[in-house]
């Protein structure tokens, strides 16, 4: 009996002869699991389509009529209604995916679904990740997923020069995943897979040879070499820059960037200068009229007279009438100037202008990354770049953005301006930046920002967010940006993988084959218990990444020869269509996913 993976590969590459039986029908039997997708918006319908593509038994719920093929199972109705959920099969369902873009609506559906079927697994799309973490801790079989957190690492990797197709969480780090297609000019052409396997900074995840059918572990053991047309999916260990500026370097940079204060402190500076000129003019006038008045007394009287504090009135009491009229005018004008000056200083210090001026003074001068748009994806990108030791500056037009404090608490300068303006990009030294990442919620604004940046600095790497996956592809081809990425396209595979295989550490898709990375605990009655990892891998067509045993990790060649024992945690990758064999144990002995 052929494995499900082997069948999927036949379909992907279309290499084998067509048989009387339908391969897809066989995969349907393997993946026979009722999954309900509630919310068929752009994200939800993409998840629904991918699940159908993987031959899962999936039902969709939409609150409005949509055009679908006759073979698609779509229920039209209110997802919070018990009747709608029952019609969709919630009583027998194993998994419910809540894909609405409204957290409150997802929570309302969650509570109704759990009342009907307390055992149903919930995969919940939430924008509020803090709430999601609380729900994960409180509710059994509840998994929070966020489009922003799933897609942000790909934007980060793109800014750092990696053409990542996915991400993988290994060794408490997020590794970028990319696909190597071997051609005649590829440096790995003719290189042995055994050599690539033994590199600790690289994880071989999946292998699709151009000729024949062989799993990755068998190919490594047999010393197979890479040939033109081979596809290899690889995870690469991220590099961390530990260099941080010292306190004095930050001070020097702030002093160097003093001209940046002008745009925020110009009004305060102008009014203050006018006030000083008034005091100087009054002091000079009183000294010139009465040579018996000292400069100090004249200055003291001028300041007291203009500010209204009083003092040394005798300077003007015995002066001519013209000086008294001059004093009266100065008192009236001074009262207005002092009022304006106090108001501007108060607004500058207690308002947001001082923070903006300080942020402007801390803008990096070179080799930094510019993030335009401080939304859910933007703040994730800022965190990741900052954690990896890179200098970042943020541009956002909303002074009330909820992530402003978070970004500034990381020491990242935030410029509250329109990122599509030349002046704004010049102020953040766009011409000397490494990359510009435009991730506002508006595709047209992102396009305008990226075009403006390219006009100012043709060499800068531009990574652009597009809500529409089709528009993203055409935008990249027409405007030749470095990467145009759609969060929906980047994140939906993770929802599908989670629906098919428990808690997922990473996933990716090559052609039509969805593979997932997961951590699984070996139990005493597990089908792989007592087997060598290499034998289990060749039998089930999975790729072992590393083994966790008693707090220690085993990888590379030692990993393949290791016998699996109870309480081992094995990290592996395998096709989603092959996950069914991990569920064949009784519920009490089922694998524990981490």
UniProtKB/TrEMBL annotation:
<feature type="transmembrane region" description="Helical">
    <location>
        <begin position="268"/>
        <end position="289"/>
    </location>
</feature>
<feature type="transmembrane region" description="Helical">
    <location>
        <begin position="325"/>
        <end position="345"/>
    </location>
</feature>
<protein>
    <submittedName>
        <fullName>TrkA-N domain protein</fullName>
    </submittedName>
</protein>
<feature type="domain" description="RCK N-terminal">
    <location>
        <begin position="366"/>
        <end position="485"/>
    </location>
</feature>
<dbReference type="InterPro" id="IPR003148">
    <property type="entry name" value="RCK_N"/>
</dbReference>
<dbReference type="InterPro" id="IPR036291">
    <property type="entry name" value="NAD(P)-bd_dom_sf"/>
</dbReference>
<dbReference type="Pfam" id="PF02254">
    <property type="entry name" value="TrkA_N"/>
</dbReference>
<keyword id="KW-0472">Membrane</keyword>
<keyword id="KW-1133">Transmembrane helix</keyword>
<keyword id="KW-0812">Transmembrane</keyword>
<dbReference type="GO" id="GO:0006813">
    <property type="term" value="P:potassium ion transport"/>
</dbReference>
<dbReference type="InterPro" id="IPR050721">
    <property type="entry name" value="Trk_Ktr_HKT_K-transport"/>
</dbReference>
């Amino acid at each position: 009996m052929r494995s499900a993976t082997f069948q999927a590969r036949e379909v992907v590459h279309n290499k084998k002869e067509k048989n009387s039986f339908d391969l897809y029908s066989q995969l349907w039997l393997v993946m026979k699991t009722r999954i309900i997708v509630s919310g068929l918006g752009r994200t939800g319908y993409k998840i629904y389509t991918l699940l159908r593509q993987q031959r899962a038994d999936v039902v969709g719920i939409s609150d409005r009529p949509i055009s679908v093929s006759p073979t698609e199972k779509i229920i039209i109705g209110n997802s919070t209604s018990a009747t709608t959920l029952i019609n969709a099969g919630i009583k027998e369902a194993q998994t419910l995916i809540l894909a609405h873009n409204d957290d409150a609506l997802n929570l309302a559906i969650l509570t109704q679904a759990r009342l009907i079927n307390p055992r149903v697994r919930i995969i919940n799309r939430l924008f509020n990740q803090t709430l999601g973490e609380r729900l994960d801790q409180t509710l059994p079989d509840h998994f929070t997923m966020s489009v922003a957190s799933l897609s942000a690492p790909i934007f980060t990797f793109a800014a750092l020069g990696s053409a990542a197709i996915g991400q993988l969480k290994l060794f408490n780090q997020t590794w970028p995943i990319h696909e190597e297609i071997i051609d005649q000019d590829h440096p790995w052409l003719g290189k042995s897979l055994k050599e690539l396997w033994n590199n600790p900074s690289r994880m071989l995840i999946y292998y699709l040879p151009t000729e024949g059918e062989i799993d990755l572990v068998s190919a490594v053991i047999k010393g197979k070499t890479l040939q033109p047309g081979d596809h290899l999916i690889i995870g690469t260990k991220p590099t961390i820059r530990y260099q941080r500026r010292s306190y004095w370097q930050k001070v020097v940079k702030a002093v160097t960037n003093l001209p940046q204060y002008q745009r925020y402190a110009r009004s305060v500076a102008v009014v203050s200068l006018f006030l000083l000129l008034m005091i100087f003019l009054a002091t000079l006038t009183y000294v010139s009229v009465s040579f018996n008045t000292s400069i100090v007394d004249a200055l003291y009287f001028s300041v007291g007279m203009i500010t209204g504090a009083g003092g040394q009135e005798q300077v003007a009491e015995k002066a001519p009438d013209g000086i008294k009229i001059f004093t009266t005018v100065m008192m009236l004008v001074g009262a207005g100037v002092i009022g304006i000056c106090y108001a501007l200083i108060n607004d500058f210090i207690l308002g947001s202008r001082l923070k903006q001026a300080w942020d402007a003074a801390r803008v990096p001068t070179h080799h930094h990354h510019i993030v335009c748009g401080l939304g859910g994806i933007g703040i994730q990108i800022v965190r990741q770049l900052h954690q990896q030791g890179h200098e970042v500056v943020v541009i956002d037009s909303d002074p009330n953005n909820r992530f402003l404090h978070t970004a500034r608490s990381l020491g990242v300068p935030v410029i509250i301006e329109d990122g599509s303006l030349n002046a704004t990009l010049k102020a953040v030294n766009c011409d000397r930046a490494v990359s510009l990442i435009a991730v506002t919620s508006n595709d047209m604004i992102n396009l305008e920002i990226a075009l403006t940046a390219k006009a100012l600095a043709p060499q800068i790497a531009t990574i652009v967010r597009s809500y529409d996956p089709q528009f993203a592809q055409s935008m990249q081809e027409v405007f030749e940006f470095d990467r145009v990425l759609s969060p929906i396209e980047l994140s939906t595979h993770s929802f599908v993988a989670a629906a098919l295989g428990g808690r997922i550490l990473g996933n990716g898709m090559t052609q039509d084959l969805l593979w997932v990375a997961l951590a699984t605990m070996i139990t005493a009655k597990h089908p792989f218990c007592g087997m060598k990892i290499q034998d289990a891998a060749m039998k089930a067509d999975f790729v072992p990444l590393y083994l966790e045993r008693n707090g220690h990790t085993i990888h590379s060649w030692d990993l393949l020869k290791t016998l699996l024992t109870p309480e081992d945690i094995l990290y592996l990758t395998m096709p989603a269509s092959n996950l069914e064999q991990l569920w064949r144990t009784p519920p009490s002995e089922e694998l524990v996913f981490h």
